[in-house]
Structure formats: C-alpha cells, structure tokens
Write a structure and sequence with these properties.
- By secondary structure, the protein is mainly α.
- It has 2 helices and no strands.
- It has one domain.
Length: 68
C-alpha cells in the first residue's frame, strides 16, 4: 500500500470529521469541540510521525565504515 496515499486519505478524513464536529457544535452548545480537536490532533500527529519515521530507508543511512 502506498503510504503517501494512506496519509492523504487520513488527512482528508480528519478534515471531514472536523467539519461534522463543527456542525454538531453549532446545534449542541455543550459539545466539547476544543477538547475533541486536541485529542484528535494528538492521535493524528502521533500516527503521522510514526508512519513518516517508519518509512525512512534505514539502509540509506547506515554507516559506511569510514571513520570521522
């Protein structure tokens, strides 16, 4: 699976979910929009960071044996 496309799809999904939550907030005054956004941002940011770091090609950055 192409991880770039997966991240794009997840980003678009998060935008749609945020829009829906905004609509809910407009109808339900007590909806904790700020708290929900902060939790989603932490989870989304952590997931994106892990996916990005895990996609780094480690062989590209292996030491060549040269001493500095």
């Amino acid at each position: 699976m192409n991880n770039g496309k997966t991240r794009l799809k997840l980003t678009l999904l998060m935008i749609i979910v945020s829009f829906i939550e905004g609509l809910i907030k407009s109808f339900v005054a007590g909806f904790p929009l700020t708290e929900v956004f902060s939790i989603q941002a932490v989870v989304f940011g952590g997931y994106m960071a892990v996916k990005t770091v895990s996609n780094i090609n480690e062989s590209k950055y292996e030491p060549t044996g040269e001493s500095t």
